Amino acid sequence: MKATGQDLPVSPGYMPQLDSLRAIAVLLVLFEHWAPENSVLKLLPVGMIGVTLFFVLSGFLITQILIKSRNLSEEMDSNKIHSAKQFYIRRTLRIFPIYYITIFILYFFNIQDLRQKFLWFLFYASNFYFYNIHNWDGSLSHLWTLAVEEQFYIIWPFIILFIPKRLLLRSIIFVIFLGPLFRMVLFYFSDRSDWTVSFIHVLTPSCMDCFGLGALLAYFRINENKSFILRNKPALIFLSLNILSIIILLFFEENIFSVFLFRFNISAICLFIISKTSLGFSGFLKNIFENKILMYLGKISYGLYLFHNFIPLIYSAFKMPAIQDAYLKFMVQVSILIFISSVSWFLIEKPINNLKRYFSYTQ
Length: 363
Description:
With 363 residues, the protein is mainly α. The chain has helices at 16-34, 46-76, 80-109, 118-122, 126-133, 144-162, 168-188, 194-199, 208-223, 228-249, 256-279, 283-289, 292-299, 301-308, 311-317, 326-353.
């Protein structure tokens, strides 16, 4: 028996509080790049925390969609290849349009000499480019995370949709440990310089613990009993991973924290936050996470992230007046960014995103 996309929904129900979490993640990145040097936020690696939160959240939401799609395909005896194809089409509609519009504009104006390395960005391989040149590249630097996300989207449907179901949980657990193990191996076979510690993190295998932990939460949400397991297993995983990391720290050199454990710990914390947030809050926290402004910023967060590194260039190009106060400058740049991202959302992203209704996961 075949099913249409309208018979049973594949996508997880809309969770508005997760839009707010996206907004918080992108705001952390903005604080990292734009906040004054004397800001208290500079005491923490808020940019890395924001990016890690994005990765764990992607792992959770994408895996939920793919597992539900797989279950429906098996229940309705429909083609899982069709589900994979629909996934790629839907991701393409969401991600490609403004990304490629942006890089072709950058190519036209040759921002950061983009023409010389254009193929890296054209094929979502900028993370490998940054790793190869041993450096960042000005306003293009943040695009490494989009390359990692896209590479994850390419491989993940094959794991979730086609691996034998009895091996699915083991595969997700393997992926979680692949990230820190890959970072360790790369570190020990490198010169162990500060550069290596920094740039190991831009390679996709290094980020798989972030995606894997999000995927693990999605697996438990769909396949395990509700009640106790649903509400407590992510917290138990969070606690166990952090205890494990502390034990490991006792036996290894100090640098191992940066390479092996820091992102692991941050990912576990993000897992805990996403688990609690996705279940919803009441009272004070509900008012925060269902605040309309924060949810709107989450809705346009892709544009906020993609465009933010180019705002200083736009500011200079239009010869806007110099602002001496660092905090006022921050607010002006954020306002310009929100305006441009809103235009992008309403004129480009939302109309194209609406086309996804023609590409349901089941036949």
